[in-house]
Write a structure and sequence with these properties.
GO molecular function, one term: 3'-5' DNA helicase activity
CATH superfamily of the largest domain: P-loop containing nucleotide triphosphate hydrolases
Keywords: ATP-binding, DNA damage, DNA recombination, DNA repair, DNA-binding, Helicase, Hydrolase, Isomerase, Nucleotide-binding
CATH topology of the largest domain: Rossmann fold
Helix content: 25-40%
Largest sheet: 7 strands, parallel
EC number: 5.6.2.4
Distance between the termini: 31 Å
CATH class of the largest domain: Alpha Beta
Family: Belongs to the helicase family. RecG subfamily.
Shape: globular
CATH architecture of the largest domain: 3-Layer(aba) Sandwich
Organism: Pelomicrobium methylotrophicum
Strand order of the largest sheet: 11-12-10-13-14-9-15
């Protein structure tokens, strides 16, 4: 049964409110204005200036429907100081009847110079009685959806504000410590600012009332994350201590030495796995920093204790790369690695499933196929999730449920800016591999307009004729995978004809896994000199001899994708170049992205810009991850509030647990249950 505040609201309106995220009375309180209109004063028509919004009041002198040059309602209004014309290009018969000569009206809109008198096009109007009082506060304009009028929202919000106790959830010492004003005072102010309020501070959300609301939102997020962290620490996981038998043998067999950063990251992971509660660690490292070897060592530590590891990747190509590397490293040590994917032949798949279920395979590698019910582990002790932001919360949960609270290692080559880590990843322990392995050369980035395509083609030919290899990445076509494939096939044919002396290969998402593997093997062995590819190669491809990449229509790609692709070159000792080939004219957003790529090689710096440009929701893929997105706070602008909320959450849970519970219920209802994954 709906709450009394929603009494009399029809089903259609309730559905529109739900679309805005309004389901409970408190959602109305937190549905804050986008902007305000000043209807607290009347300006005489003679004094009204062009260009800005203004409110006038007068009597309708004439009202007529004209049919030339198009059908329109033209209303002339006089207030004794002057006249103006109100013009309506779209109107209902009822509006024409209301705007009849002799009626007194208030018009609110933008004034502009007209042919005979100043004009307003589509001003808001209200028929009023002489001497009718003006509003005493600024008029809020709320975010809305089609068919839901501002008046309806204002009425419901006023009803909620009048009928609810807006009690304080923040203890007085904490309010004082951060110089925050009261919650009720802040919310009421934002819904109805007085005349003369600092409209700039309200618009920029720097007003003390906005700061309080943003702080509360960040505090709710921090409390939720901290509780989740505590709950995880209370669970029991299998202890998988470092025994050093298999891990030492792998390190000794490697043809390279681990970097200090890799060693430090593995030490942290190894220590966590030895604890009796489930590890939940995020391993961050830029493209090519060597996260896979660290994951291999973690899998061996699980194997030393008789437990299995699941390694999951978002694409078949990346999962297959992991499978090859892990087999190469682990099988000589007697650790069987199974490969599971959705496109396998039934017999091969059944064999792999049996090896995992019997515990014969201590490591299982695959895509989301690992989530499926038929996949049974004998003793799952560790789940490794690569490019974890590409998986939804339910998928990560499904994998966790396959074991008795297995340890989780999440890996990301999309570096996470500090503010994002403090906010959305506050419930995780984070390890960072901040250095590249020796022998990696920095990649030079070149921006080249499409008009110079011939020069780029000549450069590709020279590189391949000198014994090196190159990638040609085809443009991303959002609307259609079929169109993207068509472009890739056309590019492949064109380049094959352009370079008859070179062996050109093609790889794309629609290729059968065995065909894809064949092409990648040939490229890895150097039999293919130029590889034409769609963006499927953005992660997991490692060919040290490939030192040139051309990204066609680079303006269509996002920063994270461009950075991932560029990371496919620069993996050997040869100086590498990435050419961003773009089509003119460039829009401002594309120009900005390409400039950032040209100026920055550091993934963390690129990620910081990416967060600034796209916002946390897009950056995290959090729209499907279950993490509550911030509606009011801005991680870039409100870092000081984030730090304060972080400290307050810790103290509040220890000293004021009841306040913490009430604060979470106010801001999240049951949504913070999601965060237990």
């Amino acid at each position: 049964m709906p709450h009394p505040i929603f009494a009399g609201v029809g089903a259609a309106t309730l559905e529109k409110l739900r679309r805005l995220g309004i389901q409970a009375p408190f959602d109305l309180v937190l549905h804050l204005p986008l902007r305000y209109e000043d209807e607290t004063r009347i300006v005489p028509i003679a004094e009204a200036r062009d260009g800005g919004p203004v409110q006038v009041e007068g009597v309708i002198v004439s009202s007529e429907i004209l049919h030339r040059p198009r059908r329109q309602l033209v209303v002339r209004v006089s207030d004794g100081t002057g006249e103006l014309t109100a013009r309506y290009l779209h109107f209902y018969p009822n509006q024409a009847r209301l705007l009849a000569p002799g009626r007194r009206v208030r018009l609110h809109g933008e004034l502009r110079a007209g042919f005979l008198a100043p004009e307003m096009v589509h001003p808001r109007f209200r028929v009023v009685a002489p001497g009718e009082p003006l509003p005493s506060t600024l008029t809020p304009v709320y975010p809305t959806t089609a068919g839901l009028a501002q008046m309806t929202l204002r009425r419901l919000i006023q009803r909620a504000l009048a009928g609810m106790a807006l009690d304080e959830t923040l203890p007085a010492p904490m309010r004082a410590a951060h110089a925050l004003q009261g919650f009720e005072e802040s919310v009421r102010y934002l819904h109805a600012p007085p005349p003369g309020a600092d409209e700039r501070a309200l618009a920029e959300r720097t007003h003390p009332a906005w700061r309080r609301v943003k702080f509360d939102e960040l505090l709710a997020q921090q409390l939720s994350m901290r509780l989740h962290y505590r709950q995880r620490r209370a669970r029991v996981a299998p202890r998988l201590p470092a025994r050093g038998t298999l891990t030492r043998r792998l390190i000794e067999s490697l043809p390279f030495r681990l970097t200090r950063a890799q060693e430090a990251a593995f030490r942290e992971i190894s220590r966590d796995m030895g604890e009796a509660h489930p590890m939940q660690r995020l391993l961050q490292g830029d493209v090519g920093s060597g996260k896979t070897i660290v994951a291999a060592l973690a899998a061996l530590q699980a194997a030393e204790n008789g437990y299995q590891t699941a390694v999951m990747a978002p694409t078949e190509l990346l999962a297959e790369q992991h499978y090859r590397k892990l087999s190469q490293w682990l099988e000589p040590l007697g650790v069987k690695v199974a490969w599971l994917t959705g496109s396998q032949k039934k017999r091969v798949r059944e064999e792999a499933l049996e090896q995992v279920a019997e515990g014969e395979a201590l490591v299982a590698v695959g895509t989301h196929a690992l989530f499926q019910d038929e996949v049974r582990f004998q003793r799952l002790g560790l789940a490794v999730i690569d490019e974890q932001h590409r998986f939804g919360v339910h998928q990560r949960l499904a994998l966790r449920l396959k074991g008795d609270h297995p340890h989780q290692l999440m890996m990301s080559a999309t570096p996470i800016p500090r503010t994002l880590a403090m906010s959305y990843y506050a419930d995780l322990d984070v390890s960072v591999i901040a250095e590249l392995p020796p022998g990696r050369t920095p990649v030079a980035t070149r921006l080249v307009a499409d008009s110079r395509r011939d020069e780029v083609i000549a450069r590709v030919r020279n590189a391949c004729m000198e014994g090196r290899q190159a990638y040609w990445v085809c443009p991303l076509i959002e609307e259609s995978e079929t169109l993207q494939l068509k472009t890739a096939l056309e590019t492949f044919e064109r380049l094959k004809n352009t370079f008859p002396e070179l062996k050109v290969g093609l790889v794309h998402g629609r290729l059968k896994p065995e065909d894809k593997a064949q092409v990648m093997d040939a490229f890895q062995r150097g039999e293919i000199q130029l590889l034409v590819a769609t963006t499927v190669i953005e992660v997991g491809v490692d060919v040290p001899n490939a030192s040139l990449m051309v990204i066609d229509h680079a303006e269509r790609l996002g920063l994270a994708q461009l950075h991932q692709l560029r990371g496919r070159v620069g993996r050997g000792a040869e100086r590498s170049v990435c050419i961003l080939l773009y089509e003119t004219p460039l829009g401002p957003a594309a120009r900005e992205r390409l400039r950032i790529m040209y100026e920055n090689a550091d993934g963390f710096e690129i990620a910081r810009h990416d967060l600034r440009l796209r916002g946390p929701g897009e950056f995290l893929g959090a729209r499907q991850s279950g993490v509550p997105l911030l509606r009011f706070a801005d991680l870039e602008k409100d870092q000081d509030l984030l730090e304060a909320a972080r400290e307050t959450a810790k103290e509040m849970l220890e000293r004021f647990p009841d306040h913490a519970r009430r604060h979470l219920e106010r801001w999240m209802g049951l949504r913070h249950e999601y965060l237990k994954v």
